[in-house]
Write a structure and sequence with these properties.
With 242 residues, the protein is of the alpha+beta class. It has 6 helices and 14 strands. The strands form 3 sheets. Strands 8, 9, 10, 11, 12, 13 and 14 form a 7-stranded antiparallel sheet that branches. Helix 1 packs parallel to helix 6. It starts with 5 loop residues before the first strand and ends with a helix. The chain binds adenosine-5'-diphosphate and magnesium ion. Magnesium ion (MG) is lined by residues 10-12.
């Protein structure tokens, strides 16, 4: 399937049209951004690593009955996906307190939450991706009430599947961000990517709060060895799946 025009270039990926209007080709870049793109850099090899990790995780989720946009990985840094209208929401699931949850609530980093917390953020760079209440989300018509309850249950189910999988990799799934979209036939699908850019992943073999970090926090917090950490996640993810 040949690629055509560039549809959109984001911070981490470029979307291209294909011969089929319902299918887009996603090209994963090595570019890294943090803090709403105020911090920019490159993580060498990230495009291929994240594409491979996302591919494996989408295949895992599909096998567990979750509808995703994934079709194929035609090249190491390319993914063919079903084209969707992305809901302008970042669906965040948290198992352990970290990041903005700690900054905004005072919870200590590393506190295990009594149950998973599902949060919705407005995917809007100009506004700084603010945290939404359910009522604000409905007020802004970012999703219908039915979609909201589907997003909530899908996010929790995905969390269960991913926690179990990452545990087998010796990795603790601290939190992660999901994006969902709607197809031309109104089917709700998991879209975008699941990768060390969008998850907090802690190495279970390390207790040191800096050494255990295997995700984009290494880049955000200048912890060093970013490429090694991403590579390590890839190797563990590929090693565990049949
Ligand atoms: P951003 O800078 O917004 O984070 P990315 O570089 O991560 O963007 O990704 C490019 C864009 O592709 C994002 O806006 C994302 O929501 C969108 N996207 C992801 N999956 C799909 C899909 N299946 N169909 C259409 N758009 C998608
Ligand atoms: Mg993105």
């Amino acid at each position: 399937m040949s690629a055509h025009q560039k549809l959109y270039e984001g911070k981490a990926k470029i979307l291209y049209t294909t011969d089929d209007p319902e299918i887009v080709l996603t090209h994963f870049k090595d570019d890294a951004t943090a803090f709403n793109a105020q911090k920019r850099g490159q993580i060498s090899g990230k495009g291929e690593i994240n594409c491979a990790i996302a591919t494996k995780l989408f295949q895992l989720l599909e096998a567990e009955g979750i509808g995703t946009h994934f079709i194929d990985q035609p090249a190491p840094n390319q993914m063919l996906v079903k084209r969707v209208r992305i809901l302008p929401l970042e669906v965040v699931v948290r198992n352990i307190a970290a990041g903005s949850l700690c900054q905004q609530t005072g919870l200590p980093v590393g506190k295990v939450l009594p149950k998973p917390l599902v949060e919705f953020y407005f995917k809007n760079d100009a506004l700084g991706d603010p945290l939404l209440t359910r009522d604000r989300l409905l007020l802004l018509e970012l999703a219908t009430p039915e979609q909201l309850s589907q997003l909530n249950s899908q996010a929790l189910r995905i969390n269960e599947i991913l926690i179990a999988f990452f545990n087998k990799c010796g990795i603790t799934l601290v939190d992660f961000k999901l994006e969902f979209g709607v197809t031309s036939t109104q089917q709700l699908l998991l879209a975008d990517e699941i990768s060390p850019d969008s998850c907090r992943l802690w190495n279970q073999a390390e207790t040191d709060p800096d050494k255990r970090v295997m995700d984009k926090d290494r880049f955000r917090r200048d912890l060093g060895n970013v490429e090694d950490a991403y590579q390590q996640v890839l190797e563990r993810v590929l090693g565990t799946l049949k």
